[in-house]
Structures are given as C-alpha cells and as structure tokens.
Amino acid sequence: MPSVSLPAADRAVMHLVLGEPAKLNVRATPPTSREVYAASHVVADPIRASAGNASDQIDWEATLRLRRDLWSLGLGVAESMDTAQRGMGLDWTAAKELAVRTLAEAKSVGGRAVVGVGTDQLKSERPSLAEIRDAYIEQIDAIESNGGDVVMMASRHLARAAERPDDYRTVYDAVLSAARRPVILHWLGTVFDPALDGYWGAEDRSVAIDTVVEIIVAHRDKVRGIKVSLLDQSLEIALRERMPAGVRVFTGDDYNYVDLIAGDGTHSSDALLGAFAAIGPFASAAFAHLDADDIQGFKTILRPTESLSRLIFASPTQYYKVGVAWLAYLTGKQNHFRMIGGFETGRSLLHLADLVRAADAIGLFPNPDLTADRASAYFAVHGID
Questions:
Q1: Helix (H) or strand (E) holding 1
Q2: CA 304, CA 291: separation in Å to the nearest integer?
Q3: Residue range 202-231: average pLDDT?
Q4: How confident is the model at residue 127 (pLDDT cuts 50, 70, 90)?
Q5: What's the pLDDT tens digit per position in 312-327?
Q6: For 7-57, what is the HEC assignment?
Q7: SS3 for 36?
Q8: In degrees rounded to 5, what are phi and psi of residue 163?
Q9: Of the ranges 31-35, 123-127, 135-139, which one carries the lowest mean pLDDT score?
Q10: Which residues of 220-242 are buried (b: 16+ CB within 10 A; e: fewer)?
C-alpha cells in the first residue's frame, strides 16, 4: 500500500502507510426511516480564489458535481448554509445563485434539497426588527419562487437587535406567517458562531428552549422541523420530547449524531449535518440498515465516523469547512485544495495531517494511491518531505 509523509508536532516527519478502503454497500435511494441532508461545501475556482468574497471565485461545475455525488448516495443536500461558507466568503448574492443552480440540478436528477435563508443582505449592523423581518421574507420568497424549501437560519442581525424573547416571537411570527411552504428553523450555537450568543432572548438554553417551543407550537402548520446545532446532546433530546406531532428535530450535532439519529425507542432525530458531506458513503450504507430496523448495523457502520467528525469540527469549530474541503480533495472529489477567501489557512498542517490519519483509520479513501500522491505533494510544498 502507498505511504504518505506527514508532519508531527516535534517537527519530525512521520510516514503513514495507507490502509484499504472500507467496503460499503451504498445505495442511491433516499432513506425511509429518517430525513437525511448533508450540508455541502463550495469548490473554489483555484485561479481566482483570494481574500475577496466574490461569486466569480466559485467553480460551479465542481460544486454541482459534489451535490450530484451526494444525491447518488441517496442523501439530500442542504444548500447555501454554513458549510458553504455562508457569511464567511459567500454573501447573499452568491448564496442565491448557488441555491438556484442547485435547485435546478436537483430537479433534473430527482434529488432532494433544502436551502438556507437569512438576513445577510442587510448593510446596517443594527437594523430594526422590521428590516430583519423583511430581509428574511425577501430571501424566503426568492427560494420558494424557485421551487425550494427553506431552512430559516439564525440571524446575527436579530441576535444584536433583539432585547427580549418577545422580539424573536415578533420576527418569527411575521416571517412564518408570510412563508408559503413549511420551514425548517435553525438553532445554531456559539461554538459555530459566537455572534449568536443569547439567541432566542436568553443565554440560558433551558430558558431559550421555551421560546423556541412556543414559536413552533404557534406555527406548527408552517414549521416542518428545527435543525439543532448546539453540540449539546441532552438539550436536543429535551427539545425533541416537546415537539408537536409531525414536527421533526434535525440533528446538527456533528459529535453525537449516531445515538441521536438511532433514538431512544420513543424519539429520534433526523439529520442535517455537515459531517455527512465528508462521510457520505458511510451514511448511505448505514441508513440502509436503519431502514431495515437493524439499529446495531447502523451503529456499527456509522459509529467509527464520529471520531473523524469530532476532529473535523474541533475548536475553533467554524473552520470545520477546511476539513470537509481537504477530505474532498484527498478522495478525488475536487482537484485542488484552495477555498474562497483563503479559508483553508484556518487550519494548521498538523491538523490536516491528523485528518489524514483519522480518515485512513476508517477506510475513507477510495483510492489510496491518489490520496498519498496528493497529500505528499501538498505537504512537500510546505517543506514536509
């Protein structure tokens, strides 16, 4: 088997012999036991990618190819969200174009997609609640008019402008009333975005959960579910126990997704995860077992992936996109390792080397020779040889 030279903390060079790829029985049909979406990243145009935030930095064909790959595994695509560098290289103009292209592609291949909407077209740092409401409605209308379902992402503007839980109720009541199709809400924790501290009007999550539930109950006909990205397993379990009938909880917990999806026999979580963009074949194979009520088979396939996911999402967590793109490069799903805005510099060479080891340990690399060539060449350029 091929080997790769990896940097170590003591500045030594370690040689890793890559193992065999995992043997997985993937399938193209969507799971029936859960709703499952992978939040996919954006592939940069390597000759244009820079510190700027322009949509001309996107390699559209390579980006859509990633989505086709996920659909071929039976997974849905969560578009224009955090994994796609929304607000960290991708503004609303680029996010809207990405969403429209993905929705058209999904229609052509029969794939499933949901699209993140927010308030990032606002220019003011402290807009009024009415301006925030209107920004949400504008984005929802743009996506729904193109046949898309939306994920109503947490708004940094609202986190700054709101002074009490009632301010959240006011905005969400108006926006959900205006939506034409059921919406997935989103509770994103500060580990992903520190600007969302105190979302729902309380820093104490046990208090904030009451506001979330009240909003959902008041609009149960307009709320399809809520994505929970708090990396707090007990809170997600508590929240799903309070959901009205028919309202789903989509786990965004990239540390503990196996048990949350498997459930406790009474309640379970659906999935909307950035991790699944990196480990798509494992998810595809695992859900085939869950659909057959083989919970142990589901866990056996997916449990080993959590250690890799926890490394991808290690603090500072907002740089997890780097790991997703790095592994896409090493598995041959894109032909370079550059990101919009130079975002790839958010992780060290040591972290990238750790990802190689962790990914190899579960057999993620389908072509070890390609992986070894690409990883060795990348590290050699940085003096690791």
A1: none
A2: 20
A3: 96
A4: very high
A5: 999 999 999 999 999 9
A6: ECCCCCEEEEECCCCCCCCCCCCCCCCCCEEEECCCCECCCCCCCCCCHHH
A7: strand
A8: -110, -15
A9: 123-127
A10: eebbbbbbbbbbbbebbbebbee
Identity of the residue numbered 48: R
Q: Are strands 3-7 and 13-17 parallel, antiparallel or unpaired?
A: antiparallel
Q: What is the pLDDT of residues 234-267, one digit of tens each?
A: 999 999 999 999 999 999 999 999 999 999 999 9
Q: pLDDT: is 277 or 206 the higher one?
A: 277
The span from the CA of 30 to the CA of 37, in Å, is 10
Dihedral sign, CA of 291, 36, 204, 133? negative
**Which two tokens mark 186?**
């989103």
Distance of CA 140 to the CA centre of its chain: 19
* Rounded Cα gap, residues 163 and 14, in angstroms: 53
Q: Which of 244, 276, 249 is nearest to 263 (CA)?
A: 249
- Alpha carbon separation from 74 to 5, 29, 331 (Å, rounded): 35, 5, 19
Using alpha carbons, select from 328, 380, 384, 381 the residue that is nearest to residue 355.
328
Amino acid at 164: R
Q: What does the alpha-carbon distance between residue 18 and residue 356 come to, in Å, rounded to a whole number?
A: 9
Which residues of 32-148 form beta strands (DSSP E)?
36-39, 76-79, 113-117
**Could you give the CA distance from residue 208 to residue 370 in angstroms, rounded to a whole number?**
48
